[in-house]
Structure formats: structure tokens, C-alpha cells
Design brief:
Enzyme class: hydrolase
Low-confidence stretches: none
Helix content: 40-55%
Number of domains: 1
CATH topology: Nucleotidyltransferase, domain 5
Strand order of the largest sheet: 3-2-1-4-5
Shape: globular
Distance between the termini: 24 Å
CATH superfamily: Ribonuclease H-like superfamily/Ribonuclease H
EC number: 3.1.21.10
Strand content: 15-25%
Protein name: Crossover junction endodeoxyribonuclease RuvC
Family: Belongs to the RuvC family.
Radius of gyration: 15 Å
Mean pLDDT: 90
Keywords: Cytoplasm, DNA damage, DNA recombination, DNA repair, DNA-binding, Endonuclease, Hydrolase, Magnesium, Metal-binding, Nuclease
């Protein structure tokens, strides 16, 4: 049997970016850590993006994950909010990529399906199942819980042909 793979899941947001780290060994998952990187609401956009970058870089440096997974952007009716979320998501993808990690992306419905078994469900269901799958998990915000769900999703899908090919290409 091989070594455990440490996975960081990232739930991007401009105010709060959640992160969650699990270790995957075969079919077993183990909670490592989770938290939330915050930006100052009143700061300029560039400053806020720097705060997210620096906070995530600190987490990656301390936790040393092997792989990363980020949730894809949910497009809503507010174009300005969607654009800002996209910029935060860019930071969430840039930081692990700059650290040399392959970054997988998952649609919100794929994350829900991996964690609760169906593609549609509410946050409470997801958070409850994260606690079932990772009994020792703690999270300070719903964003950290969502990030753990993203990491769980990646642990379930990381053996897919597409992911293995992406890993070989990098």
C-alpha cells in the first residue's frame, strides 16, 4: 500500500475563502485541518486579493498538501459579484499551482453528489455528511466545511483517467 495523499480543498470567496485538508489512503479519509482565510471588507479589491493570496500561501506552506481541488464558480444574476468571485477563485487556483500542485476543479453539484449522494442538497446536509465522513473534523465557518467537502470529492475522483492524465502532463 502507498503513502497517504494530502489533499487541500478550497472554497473560494472574496470575504472568506475556506480551506480543508484531508489525507486519503486507499478508501479511508482522515481529517487534518480546516480554516478560513478572511479579507478586510473595506479594503481595496487588490488588497483583498493579496490578503487571500498570502493567507492561502501560508496554509499551503504549513500543511504541505500533495494535491489541490477548487470549486468552480457559481454564476448568479449579479455580474459584478460573479466577477469578484472569479477573481478570488483565480487566487485559489494560483496559489497551489505556484506551489507545484495539480489543481482539480469540481462543479458544486459534483461536490454534493460525492458527499451526500445526490447533486442537489442544502448546506446543512453537506455539513452533516462531512461530520459523518470525517468524525474528527472541526470547521470555523461554513466555507471551511464546504472546503472539506471539496477535498472529499477530490479524494473520490482523483483516480479518474482525466485527473491522472493532467497529473502526468504537469
Amino acid at each position: 500500500m502507498g503513502d497517504a495523499i494530502r489533499i487541500i480543498g478550497i472554497d473560494p470567496g472574496l470575504r472568506r475563502t475556506g480551506w480543508g485538508i484531508v489525507e486519503s489512503l486507499g478508501n479511508s479519509l482522515r481529517f487534518v485541518a480546516s480554516g478560513t482565510v478572511r479579507s478586510e471588507d473595506k479594503a481595496a479589491l487588490a488588497t483583498r486579493l493579496c490578503q487571500l493570496h498570502d493567507g492561502l500561501a501560508e496554509v499551503l506552506h504549513a500543511a504541505m498538501p500533495h494535491e489541490a481541488a477548487v470549486e468552480q464558480t457559481f454564476v448568479n444574476k449579479d455580474a459584478v459579484a460573479t466577477l469578484k468571485l472569479g477573481q478570488a477563485r483565480g487566487i485559489a487556483m494560483l496559489v497551489p499551482a505556484r506551489a507545484g500542485l495539480v489543481v482539480a476543479e469540481y462543479a458544486p453539484n459534483a461536490v454534493k453528489k460525492a458527499v451526500i449522494g445526490v447533486g442537489h442538497g442544502d448546506k446543512k446536509q453537506i455539513h452533516m455528511m462531512v461530520k459523518v465522513l470525517l468524525p474528527k473534523a472541526t470547521f470555523d465557518t461554513e466555507h471551511a466545511a464546504d472546503a472539506l467537502a471539496i477535498a472529499i470529492c477530490h479524494a473520490h475522483h482523483r483516480q479518474s483517467v482525466a485527473y491522472r492524465m493532467a497529473a502526468l502532463a504537469s
